[in-house]
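Re: export button greyed out
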Amino acid sequence: MLEIRSARKVFYKGQADEKVALDGLDLSLATGEFGVVIGSNGAGKSSMLNAISGALVLDSGQIVINGDDVTAMPVHKRAMRLARVFQDPMRGTAASMTVAENMLLAELRSNKRTLRRGLNATRLAAYRERLSLLGLGLENRLDTRVELLSGGQRQSLSLIMAVGGEPELLLLDEHTAALDPRTADIVMQATIRAVEALKLTTLMVTHNMQHAVDFGHKVIMLDAGRVRLEIDGKDKAQTTVPDLIGHFSVKTDRMFLAS
Amino acid sequence: MDILQNTLASFISLVPVTLAQSLILAFVVLGIMIPFRMLSFPDLTSEGAFPLGGCVCGVLMAAGMSPLAAIAIALVAGFVAGCCTAFIHLRFRIHTLLAGILMMTMLYSINLRIMGRSNLSVFGASTVFDWAPGLQPGFPASKIVVAGMIALIVFFLLYHFFRTEKGTAVRAVGANPDMAEAQGINVWLATIGGVGLAGAFSAASGALMVQSQGFADVNMGLGILINGLAALMIGEAIVGKQNVLCQLAAPFVGAIVYYQLVSFCLAAGMPPPDLKLATGLFVLAMLALPSLKRSRGPAPARETVRE
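Workaround output, generated via the alternate export path:
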């Protein structure tokens, strides 16, 4: 379960270019629920994800994961509870290390790291099996350095790494936006399979309205640092792409008036 | 022909002495490689940590402490120095190179304070090189055996460590700090520990050097960094750096080859004052090579380092 309580963050406070990134944002996601976050650029989607992962320190407000207040926890401590896939395939993997080493790092995310041998035969076999589910042939390239993989392969690897430890919360930050349509589809299908199989509590940011309509239990629309719209249950099932885009255009008009 | 023969003869006569020296200095090269390659943290502390180790060891030996204990304390001093550099970088967001320059400058004064004067003779005090089994103390052979054994032990320990779960995490910090943090790795701890370890190796090298040459000098670190870097480049050119084994072997191989090369140049009549210029040009060439090679290709390969 994820709860964001009146989160507030202002960049460049007191300066001419002061920007309110999060303006008393409230959001909650039940255990096992899959939320899709949409919103125009600058609406606060990335700030929200950064606030949840700990990369962004809030001015005020709280982040609660499964009942525990994690607001004051540094990024590496929160990593025990949550996993994140970035838009940029380069950010989620260690380029100069091998596929197997990256898998090991992800596996140890929620465990204590010891002075025992990292990559042993049992682990390598397990990684081979998990990677074979993708059908990209990564299982035969365990000793390949990640920098030699294509963007799609790296992103698929990031996804497998993220869902591996069954995190309490999975954050997907436009994770298919940088991929070609076919690869994006493969990665998206793999995402849905994993999220459904493991019943992961998931928050996915996307600019793809079709994805927002097709996937997830609820759509959350952000605007100017707060939740503008939440569609769930039956309404979500009946929502179409034009409906969602309609909400965008309303917002854009308002922006015109405001400026 | 005569010149060639003379050169060769004097070079060969110097091989054992140079080998002993290079095995001792291999630890500085190791202390440069670990932050640079494993942590992407170009660290200049070794220029100050090397004489720090020497000064601490010299003072303690002059006070009658056992050579091994003197090395151990020098090691700790170097570790603290390395930790300070990493902390300055992390806490105050000061560029890694500047943090290193600050630390090595401050260490110069600290080294003078520790010794109380600019140099100190410990000639005649017992050293770890006296313990070489079955060899007469004081000759290059005993130094080669002792330094070589320490090098082997350190090499295997590090090789094991960097393949453990903790060691893999440390390498991840160098490969992608943001990703490492997102995977639950404490970037501060790994960086401070790693750079500290490197400082410890540099200091240990200084301590061994003092025991080998019989005196400590505050200026003994002058230029050690560029020598170490040159040795590292040579080592990486010979054994590569594609995996942990090669990356760890590079400092040792590089140190051995580099100091023999220097000895050869000197035997061939190169004036010693030109040595630093030659070394600098060599390091420049090695660092520039990738960008020269790929000037027509796609993205030029640059060293990616933390800033």
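The CA atoms of residues 222 and 285 of chain B lie 21 Å apart. The button fix ships in the next patch.
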